[in-house]
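Tutorial, part two.
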Amino acid sequence: MHKSSCHCGAVEIEIYQLPASLVACNCSICRRYASLWGHLTQETAKVSYESGAASFYKWGDGA
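Running the prediction step on this input gives:
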């Protein structure tokens, strides 16, 4: 199992099974950080956070 968290530690992720493949995004932020994305399911990973520690963000209008 692999464990990680966001920078401040409020959100944690546990990955039980690594993804079969990774995807390279070509947006400016992912290119800058050479990020690779893995697609996980509820069976292969768990995201946990305390109430109020996370919120949704939508690019563009900032909602």
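The longest helix spans residues 28-33. In part three we will examine how such features are distributed along the chain.
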